[in-house]
Amino acid sequence: MTAAGALLVVGDVVTDVVAMHPRPLAPATDTAARIRTLPGGAGANAACWAARTGSAEVRLLARVGAESARWHERALVDAGVRPRLVVDAEEPTGTVVALVGTDAERTFLTDSGASLRLCPADWAPSLLDGAAHLHLSGYLFFAASSRELAVVALRAARSRGVPVSVDPASAGFLAALGPQRFLDAVAGAGVLLPNEDEARLLAGLPEGAGAARAAAALSRRVPLVVVTLGPAGALVAERGRITAEVAAADPAEAVVDSTGAGDAFTGAFLAARLDGADPTESARAGCRAAAQAITHPGGRPWARPEGPPGAACP
Description:
- By secondary structure, this protein is an alpha/beta fold.
- Residues 310-314 have low confidence and may be disordered.
- The radius of gyration is 18 Å and the shape is globular.
- Helices cover 31% and strands 25% of the residues.
């Protein structure tokens, strides 16, 4: 892969409400927390990290609500991404509430809003003009309308010889959709970027099965599979065998929030591939970005964001 063209990401833009609570949640009463409202979304986060870490032009197709469209567009442009945001006339921008404990692990409450209302009418073949790679956020595959759009985009890319990658996004949503249905929908993709739980689920393996076994099994269906393992790094599998084990990078600061670590890995991995790196070196780039992502709240490369419409000044 070379930097001869752009990276096109099709995915989700959401508003993240990140609540970091130093004590366990107290049912039926108050729990003190530090709460921030930030731009997010798996697809948008990956696009921003790709723009931050690589040299290729990065584009994003997503759907947002009218109430925050300008805020999200500005945040993406400031991050170096060229957004094409479809403004939904009926639904607001998707919102994710991330509850983050002292271990930096997070639990999500998700209202997809406009994000999964992307549809084939939002697609234009010209989006692929000059593109060297298409990346699809797995969240697209969990609603009928956006799944249809994702399949249209995947087939259009394949017909033009543009390689495609997919991040499965959510083990919970995968289980609800059905692993085989997901794999059928992404047939033709050349790169799959699951985490360990998603890899086991897609490979049809029990919870105790090793990530290496899952990665190798999946790479018989998708030529290149890169499984992220959190603090254990990542595994690279190609055509039925593990070809690399990549160690995690050490964070330069204290770990604050693991939200978006996988998106950071994905964005930096794809940027490195477009810059000509092999899968192993690209996975190392992904681990370095993930180590940066977990040292601040939210899933984007860190910059103090201006609040969303209606937010009070600090």
